[in-house]
Amino acid sequence: MVILTLNCRRFSVQYQLFDWGLQVALASGTVERVAIGDSFVTHKVPGRAPQHRDGECADHKDALKLILAALTDPKIGVAADTGYIRAVGHRVAHGGEKFTRSVLIDEQVTAAIKETAILAPLHNNPNLAGIHGAQALLPGIPQVAIFDTAFHQTMPEAAYIYPLPYDWYLNHGIRRYGFHGQSHLYASRRGAALAGAAPERCNMVTVHTGDGVSLCALRNGVSVDTSMGLTPLEGVMMGNRCGDIDSGITPFMMNQAGISASELDLILNQKSGVTGIVGRLVTRRTLVDEARDGDERCRLALDMESYRLRKYLGGYLAVIGKPDAIVFTYSEGWHDWPIRGLALQDMEMFGIRIDPERDREALLGGREMLISADDSPVKVFVIPSGEDLVLNEDVASILGWN
């Protein structure tokens, strides 16, 4: 009972091969630069050195060929052939209102994912390309779609309906959907366990960090609000995305600068956030180092990110009432994401007291940690991401392996 999970993005594919019976990851990795040339795969097997293999990938099907070749390679692989794989789980960004849980993929499901792609074209289209590629290369193997948005379908109308003409919601599906559902689900489970609270009665705020950043307010264990909306653009300021802005800026700049809708979409999604303020692409470590050395733009970007994160945290604490915990979850690059510590400063009025030494140690990443002080009324934890585990659990559950 071995599961291959795929997260197909616009120019990359992340994968993991997981033995459900043994509950261990057999291999994982990432194919980079899909469809843009000089493609390669970084293949990791526990206990071995990571392997780098070049291989041109014109599309996501080619990327999957590269993944399957690495998994079955006599030298670096973990299986003799692809028959070892018994199921495939696909992370799908947007399920709209059609999907409130994970589902077995059939023609109706792929048609619905294609239809919903209008709400997230940069995400759903690569997801769909991965599904089609896996169906072609692994025929006859059950495939499951796990939707980012499904976890947030518990939000009340007051949280997910925008103050816009109601017909926009009825006719075009304009509403808050939210993303990073697997990450927030896992963070809430582990947060409840670490806080010693029953998951179904737990109130908390979870924060997913990475290229995209989102928060989720949970009351009695379910999502009641989340920072990302119709698209992943809404919410806190991020590395390349602007997050919340005055919507009037959009028509103003289109009129003043002659910017087209597609150009503006590119600017807001890929040339804003930290990149927009600093004026260039920078790593988080470079941002911190240059801010420390006196670069005013870098200092401003750090201040803006932490301020906006603090605003969201305060607002969500008001939504959920007395919290059992605040949980930050991460995958890679945790040591290059210092915003958490800056945002949590001076929040004693909310019962949050951070232990500076624990906070510094947590920047090393790799394990679950309590970073709040022993006398802090609200516990604050940092935990590694459990998204892959949630994907595998959903695949196993759909196929009745539990």
Question: What is Rg?
Answer: 21 Å
How far apart, in Å, are the first and last alpha carbons?
A: 11 Å
Find the count of extended strands (DSSP E, 2+ residues).
14
Largest sheet: 8 strands, mixed
Q: What is the averaged pLDDT score?
A: 94
CATH class category name of the largest domain: Alpha Beta
Predict the CATH topology of the largest domain. Nucleotidyltransferase, domain 5
Q: Give helix % range.
A: 25-40%
Question: Can you put this structure into words, describing what you see?
Answer:
The protein has 402 residues and is of the alpha/beta class. The protein folds into two domains: 2-147, Nucleotidyltransferase, domain 5, CATH 3.30.420; 197-387, Nucleotidyltransferase, domain 5 (2-Layer Sandwich). It is 37% helix and 19% strand. The chain contains 14 helices and 14 strands. The chain has helices at residues 60-72, 107-116, 121-137, 157-160, 166-172, 181-195, 249-257, 261-270, 273-278, 284-292, 296-320, 339-343, 356-362, 387-398, and strands spanning 2-8, 12-19, 24-32, 40-44, 51-54, 87-92, 103-104, 143-147, 204-208, 214-219, 222-226, 325-330, 369-370, 379-384. The strands form two sheets. The chain has an eight-stranded mixed beta sheet, with helices on both faces. A six-stranded mixed beta sheet has the order 11-10-9-12-14-13, sandwiched between helices. A hairpin with a 4-residue loop joins strand 2 (12-19) and strand 3 (24-32). Helix 1 packs across helix 3 (121-137), helix 2 packs antiparallel against helix 3 (121-137) and helix 6 packs across helix 14 (387-398). The chain is globular. The chain starts with a strand and ends with a helix.
